[in-house]
């Protein structure tokens, strides 16, 4: 298998990180991979907020969990009230990906950028995980305002990055392969 296919297949969601910060050069390559994703109408309707301040990342975790603990969805509530849970897994870098609201397909474009970044990270042996649960933090409009996201952009997802702390048991969740049909 070639390197790209290897990175795609070997990438796993990493949920345990070293405290050491990742190399700036690697981070630049990962962000560049995001920026090279395809976009509808070539809009490139994204913005990346790179947070490398431990207290700020912890604060985003704490605030997200506060809201999660009030969720009607049982598993989300349980995560919210569990003091052992850190929804960013104490990763040293958190990237918030925001999309320009008036673009043709900003959520799809940003998702393509996130996937490119996950694969780029794996190719550099850097761990990553796509974070949907930080969306709870995005409900706090006053907090989002402090992130310096450009006017007319909205935050969609987070992406944690860091060196993998625990590479044991990194088997891929079983994939259902019965999802293809051909019309020839
Ligand atoms: C839109 C989206 C949101 C996700 N949110 C989270 C999250 O908040 N926390 C988390 O640990 N994993 C999150 N994941 C990662 C998935 O749980 C993971 O991709 C899936 O279990 C398959 O495992 P793999 O990434 O190792 O192949 C998210 C993935 C996607 C695509």
Can you describe what's shown?
- This protein has helices at residues 3-10, 24-35, 54-68, 74-81, 106-123, 135-138, 141-145; strands spanning 46-51, 93-100, 127-131, 153-162.
- By secondary structure, the chain is of the alpha+beta class.
- It contains 7 helices and 4 strands, in the order H-H-E-H-H-E-H-E-H-H-E.
- The model has no long low-confidence stretch (mean pLDDT 97).
- The longest helix has 18 residues, at 106-123.
- Helix 1 packs across helix 5 (106-123), helix 2 runs antiparallel to helix 5 (106-123) and helix 3 crosses helix 4 (74-81).
- It has one domain: NADH Oxidase.
- Strands 1-2-4-3 form a 4-stranded antiparallel sheet.
- The structure holds flavin mononucleotide (FMN).
- Flavin mononucleotide binds at residues 12-13, 15, 129-133, 172-173.
Rg, please? Answer: 17 Å
How does the major sheet shape up? 4 strands, antiparallel
Instruction: Kindly report the spatial arrangement of strands forming the biggest sheet.
Output: 1-2-4-3
CATH fold annotation? NADH Oxidase
The N- and C-terminal alpha carbons lie at a distance of 27 Å
The secondary-structure element order is HHEHHEHEHHE
Return the average pLDDT rounded to an integer.
97
CATH superfamily: NADH Oxidase
Query: How many structurally independent domains?
Result: 1
Which CATH-level-2 architecture? Answer: 3-Layer(aba) Sandwich
Ligands present: flavin mononucleotide
Based on Cα principal axes, name the global outline.
globular
Helix content: 25-40%
Weakly predicted, low-confidence segments? none
Proportion of beta-strand residues: 15-25%
Total helical elements: 7
Q: Which structural class do you get from the secondary structure elements? A: alpha+beta
GO molecular function, one term: oxidoreductase activity, acting on other nitrogenous compounds as donors, with NAD or NADP as acceptor
Pfam families: Nitroreductase (PF00881)
Organism: Clostridium pasteurianum DSM 525 = ATCC 6013
Keywords: NAD
């Amino acid at each position: 298998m070639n390197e790209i296919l290897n990175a795609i297949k070997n990438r796993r969601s990493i949920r345990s990180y070293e405290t050491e910060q990742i190399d700036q050069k690697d981070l630049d390559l990962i962000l560049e991979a995001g920026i090279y994703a395809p976009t509808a109408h070539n809009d490139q309707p994204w913005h990346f907020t790179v947070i490398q301040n431990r207290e700020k990342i912890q604060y985003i975790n704490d605030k997200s969990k506060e809201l999660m603990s009030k969720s009607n969805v049982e598993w989300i509530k349980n995560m919210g009230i569990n003091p052992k849970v850190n929804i960013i897994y104490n990763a040293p870098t958190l990237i918030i990906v925001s999309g320009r609201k008036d673009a043709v397909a900003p959520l799809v474009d940003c998702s393509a950028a996130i996937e490119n970044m996950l694969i780029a990270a794996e190719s550099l042996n850097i761990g990553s995980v796509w974070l949907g649960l930080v969306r709870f933090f995005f409900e706090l409009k006053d907090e989002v305002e402090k992130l310096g996201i450009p006017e007319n952009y909205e935050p969609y997802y987070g992406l944690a990055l860091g060196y993998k702390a625990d590479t044991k048991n990194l088997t891929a969740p079983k994939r259902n392969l019965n999802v293809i049909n051909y019309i020839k």
